Amino acid sequence: RCTFLPDVAAGQNRLQNGLQIFPGSVPINSGNTLLCADGVSCDGIDQDYMISYHGLAHAATQLGNSLGNAPTAIRSDQIVVALSGGQTSRLRYVSCPFAPFIGSNDQNVCQGL
After folding, report:
1. Is the dihedral of CA 89, 95, 106, 72 positive or negative?
2. Which of 63, 81, 91, 101 is close enough to 76 for a disulfide, judged by CB 3.0 to 4.6 Å?
């Protein structure tokens, strides 16, 4: 047991392994294997996500290795949640700014890397 926080219920420690995810961080994968996470803290959460996401993607490209963002097939944004009234919604993987670049119409800048 890595943490000594009180259990929420007998035998149920939510931080059993000490792992905690903060906004602005992305998981670092090697293929389908989760290794650790990388996070930054800048102007706002959306900007933090974008910098973490793009930084990891570009580092993997420069290093020429298998480290990088999680493969699309295993990302949380592939999970569809049923809502009331028959509607559905997807979970988020990262929350990048809608239109982050001044003088550009680029959108969904955290897709496809």
Report:
1. negative
2. 91
